[in-house]
Amino acid sequence: MTFFEDLAARIDAxxxxxxxxxxxDLDRLPDFLDADLPRWAFNRRVIDATHEHAACYKPNAxxxxxxxxxxxxxxxxxxxxxxxxxxxxxxxxxxxxxxxRQYAKVLDDVDAITVNPYLGEDALRPFLDREGAGVxxxxxxxxxxxxxxQNLTVGNDKTLYEYVAQRAAEWDDGNVGLVVGAxxxxxxxxxxxxxxxxxxxVPGVGAQGGDAEAAxxxxxxxxxGLVNSSRGILFAGEGADEEGAYFRAAGDAAKRLKTRLxxxx
Length: 265
Ligand SMILES: O=c1ccn([C@@H]2O[C@H](COP(=O)(O)O)[C@@H](O)[C@H]2O)c(=O)[nH]1
What we know:
Elements lengths: L2 H12 L3 E5 L15 H13 L5 E4 L7 H16 L5 E6 L3 H7 L8 E4 L5 H8 L5 E7 L5 H5 L2 E2 L3 E2 H12 L4 E5 L4 H10 L5 E3 L9 H8 L6 E4 L1 H4 L8 H20 L3
Parallel strand pairs: 1-2, 1-10, 3-4, 4-5, 5-8, 8-9, 9-10
Antiparallel strand pairs: 6-7
Helix pairs in contact: 2-3, 2-11, 4-5, 8-9
Bound molecules: the ligand O=c1ccn([C@@H]2O[C@H](COP(=O)(O)O)[C@@H](O)[C@H]2O)c(=O)[nH]1.
Ligand LLZGTKA7 binds next to strand 10 and helix 10.
Enzyme class: lyase
Catalytic activity: orotidine 5'-phosphate + H(+) = UMP + CO2
InterPro entries: Aldolase_TIM, OMPdecase_AS, OMPdecase_type-2, OMPdeCOase_dom, RibuloseP-bd_barrel
């Protein structure tokens, strides 16, 4: 099965397009979590609490880039897979071909990845050519600085993010999606009009205050796509003084987001 076939089956099974972001910020992990690998201990409990509502888990590589982090990530990916949930690594890779080939090896372990198109097609080929893997190309990101470059006009009449979206559609062989932020609902709509068939990963609902309705209305192609929340789910239990209550809050937050998104599906 390809990533997008798996994802379609998972969306069906959970009735959910929620991507649960696994960004275990060491500075925010609860004090009661006394473990050898705290990020893994945290993620395991989050996965236990949220997997019924998770179409996908999206660990961001930035939260794992040290030796203990790599171990925590490996355990997390295996555990998510054990629960039947696909894993999308948010790594935003993009480098010259020789290096990109090394980066792409991570697709032996995870099901999909985010990539940065700035270096051009040859930097993305090692990911695009991976049988079965999903590749989400950054088009219009959710941060305020996205406008600095992505909204510039290139050629005669297109913004850079529109141009990237069109190129990504040309690369698509049933394996390509786009990253478009929920904080830019007008851009979401424009990109959807340009590329009706590509599923989007839409980050930025929750902590970034993005538009959940636009995320669903424009993010899904034939019902397939992902709307991500990380901090809004992971740290929903902050303030709870015991473990059970803390992680129940994460489960409740994932369920609430699923229910809210489903109003617009
Ligand atoms: O445009 C983008 C691309 C990626 N992200 C990532 O998604 C999550 C969002 O986390 P929240 O806590 O829900 O804000 C995080 O890993 C980002 O690096 C994004 O936000 N926007």
